[in-house]
Amino acid sequence: xxxxxxxxxxxxxxxxxxxxxxxxxxxxxxxxxxxxxxxxxxxxxxxxxxxxxxxxxxxxxxxxxxxxxxxxxxxxxxxxxxxxxxxxxxxxxxxxxxxxxxxxxxxxxxxxxxxxxxxxxxxxxxxxxxxxxxxxxxxxxxxxxxxxxxxxxxxxxxxxxxxxxxxxxxxxxxxxxxxxxxxxxxxxxxxxxxxxxxxxxxxxxxxxxxxxxxxxxxxxxxxxxxxxxxxxxxxxxxxxxxxxxxxxxxxxxxxxxxxxxxx
Length: 263
Fold this sequence. Notes:
By secondary structure, this protein is α/β, with parallel strands linked by helices. It is built from twelve helices and six strands.
């Protein structure tokens, strides 16, 4: 991930407007590179970085404070990441890039309730992505025309579906990051190093996670989290991303934060 020389947050006051910092959370490196290229060639925008996992997305948001964060819906199917990002920085704008499997009224409504400000298909043309970023920044709400029909479902059906789709998030922002790294197989010392915490602080978070999830140990906590939708399996790429970037499918296992630090 390349580092931008632009300021971390666009100016909202009088005077010349600064460019908007745009970051992306997508598990596929070539997709992040494509988004970076689109942003960097667009006047008024600058690239604030790209990461491939939820825990590194939270770190990027804390350290870089981008104006806009693009999120692949496969990494946030229950809106947990969106909620944590918006709660941590109410000024940040979250735009969801919807995979084909998520282009339905229930998912879209749930995403909006979680705090998503804009949404468009993950396979949208570059010009539509740029329009979405600009419109979301101006209006703090944008829905791509291709998704308009998803808002016409009966209200009762939407509410019922949303209730069924919603998954409770019992963990704090930091606990969620720690649990993600525990699921990746990291021990407390490695987690402390990645999150810039003391080992004792990590131990405290792990104890809190076990208590909140009623888990016997770390492995049990991870199993409970996956079973209850608190954690999600790393999404595999599918044909829609293949159409966008490559004639063959690409799978990424677990891109780490080293990419973010190498900016």
